[in-house]
Design a protein that fits this description.
The chain has 11 helices and 8 strands. The relative contact order is 0.13. The protein is an alpha/beta fold and 322 residues long. It has 2 domains: 160 residues, 3-Layer(aba) Sandwich (Rossmann fold); 141 residues, Nitrogenase molybdenum iron protein domain (Rossmann fold), CATH 3.40.50.1980.
Length: 322
């Protein structure tokens, strides 16, 4: 169904692209002399806007309130991808974007995945029935009960990994628009400095915690957990709205009780029903831990930095950190 829909969108978008091709652009991109940049979802939009400043026009493909994994593109968006001077995206995170870039932006598409140095950290709990798992849980806490070779896309939840992507996007902006190179480099240095501060805050804030395990609705926080010495337990795998198996829910309940976990975390853009159900069964609290994949109406005034700091406070509270 989704493949057919994308084919229709791509076909309609071709008409849009033909129409837009006649519009006059400057060497930098837009008619106002600014570089036209398309970012696939919020963490990349934040980098493009922060580093680009007033030298760029940034368009995001994932609107506030939309779960990035589920994104489908409109013909207008595909046309925008075709016309942009730079398209910043993460390959294999949003299939519709991958397809649009491959068809319309081979020369201007910039996949940040290599700069993020992605690793296989997770599992597809929802895709395994009884007896089908690649492994069985041990007596110790397992961040992933069933191994998976899929690369974890959630690089931005590790500020250090995020810094690597900031530098890569900065280099790409300088290459695409050398006339504004000094401004890009200055703004990049400012953002990198802020991310350095954020990293220090997480290191100091999560050093002395009575509990080292936290439970989340989907497996987005493995890089953060690894960076700061915690253990993440995901109820579902990398797809946030997938239904975990009953056996996985039982495993999570057992881990919560054994490790004396106080809080089941859920996120803003996905239903909290599973997290709330587990929390009721084991008599613990629920709270929001933002995967910072996108903004919503409720947090539209937030930024990557402020949301990450809110996450830090929630983790400190749940894990009894000094």
């Amino acid at each position: 169904m989704r493949s057919s829909m994308r084919a229709v969108v791509a076909g309609l978008a071709a008409l849009t692209v033909v129409t837009l091709a006649g519009c006059g652009n400057t060497a930098a991109g837009g008619s106002d002399g600014k570089l036209d940049v398309v970012a696939s979802f919020y963490p990349l939009e934040f980098i493009a806007r922060s580093v680009g400043g007033d030298a760029v026009n940034v368009t995001t493909l994932t609107a506030p309130g939309v779960e990035p994994h589920d994104l489908e593109l409109t013909p207008k968006q595909v046309g925008g991808i075709a016309q942009a001077k730079l398209v910043v995206y993460e390959k294999n995170l949003q299939p519709a974007v991958d397809e649009a870039v491959a068809q319309n932006a081979k020369d201007t598409g910039f996949d940040i995945a290599p700069a993020a140095q992605l690793e296989a950290t997770g599992a597809d709990f929802e895709e395994h029935g009884e007896g089908e798992a690649a492994g069985t849980p041990s007596d110790s806490v397992q961040p992933a009960a069933y191994t998976s070779d899929d690369l974890d896309p959630h690089f931005w939840l590790d500020p250090v990994r995020y810094k690597g992507v900031v530098q890569a996007v900065t280099d790409k902006l300088v290459s695409a628009d050398p006339g504004n190179a000094d401004g890009y480099k200055q703004r990049s240095a400012t953002l990198l400095g802020e991310l350095g501060k954020l990293d220090t805050e997480f290191k100091t804030g999560l050093t002395d915690c009575k509990l080292k395990t936290f439970v989340t609705s989907h497996q987005a926080f493995a890089y953060l957990a690894k960076r700061y010495g915690l253990t993440m337990v995901g109820i579902a795998g990398f797809t946030p709205d997938a239904e975990p198996t009953p056996s996985r829910i039982k495993e999570v309940q057992e881990i919560v009780q054994k490790e004396q976990v106080t809080t089941i975390f859920y996120e803003e853009l996905v239903s909290p029903k599973v997290a709330e159900s587990i929390a009721r069964d084991v008599h613990v609290k629920t709270a929001v831990l933002s995967p910072v994949e996108g903004l919503s109406d409720g947090n539209s005034q937030e930024t990557y930095l402020s949301l990450m700091r809110e996450n830090l406070q929630e983790l400190r509270k749940a894990n009894s950190c000094a």
